[in-house]
Specification:
It is built from three helices and four strands; from the N terminus they run H-E-H-E-E-E-H. The chain is α+β, with helices and mostly antiparallel strands. The longest helix is centred in the C-terminal third of the chain and has 11 residues. It is globular and about 30 Å long.
Length: about 80
Amino acid sequence: ETTAKIRERTDHLKGLKIGIMGCIVNGPGEMADADYGYVGKGKGTIALYRKKEEIRRVPEDEGVDALVKLIKDDGKWIDP
């Protein structure tokens, strides 16, 4: 469900890699080559990453919007 929501909002951003991981234990290492990461950080919380750096933690229900905002803030957003 989360992956579908992220794809729906970002699929038009060709060449941008977004790693979506459900677990903080393996997540950051497995998505190290991604431009951005969306990683489960515990019940109801996700962490957003830029490359290997954790940028912020947000409630899960705000995660997709926060990811889009991060991409926009970095100037990598292109309107569909």
